[in-house]
Amino acid sequence: MKTIIPLILLCSIFSFxxxxxxxxxxxxxxxxxxxxxSWRNQNASFICSNSNPEACLGTNCxxxxxxxxxxxxxxxxxxxEWLNTNQSLICFDDSYSYIEKCHYVNxxxxxxxxxxxxxxxxxxxxxxxGYTYDELRxxxxxxxxxxxxxxxxxxxxINKEVELNLEQFSENNSNFSVPFIRSIAKKIGLQPSDxxxxxxxxxxxxxxxxxxxxxxxxxxxxxxxxxxxxEPSTGI
Length: 236
Prior knowledge:
The chain is of the alpha+beta class.
């Protein structure tokens, strides 16, 4: 049975009550049992209490959970560096709901229809890289277990063509983490038999001198739009 570390226990560890997690869903779940007292003390300012936890999306769910407020991490250090350093402690199946939520562009967002039209125009102009989920899984070694060592990056080559690479995180790139891609599959309920029927378009375009990068996912007659791993959740 899953256990969320009680607030009273956290108080005994850190000598003060933990603040509530941010309401934006920018959270990573850590396996308490993989940490030690030194790590918990060092990261005490990032640990938060979550009164409305998301469901675990998978079978590798952790039992004792610690919630990390990525907003607080972002105020103190580079999020992608923290994720890389602590990736072995992350409960990914417990984190997928939060990871997906960090990037999801809700249809209720202002100017959503304008964004959708712009993205579809870029697709018509072929300013995208398209894969089925199955193809992307086969392009990236250890896709199902890959963490935060490298990121999917979109770049324009000398011929203005969009290329997709796997590189270390750079603040100058539009970065998509592999766990983020997996989180989409988990959230929309992809089964192995669906992998060839789920289409991902990495769309790259420049508007008003600013680079915009989005991911459009199409599955079962529905479209889902996501942004890249940028501020304030850089690296997730």
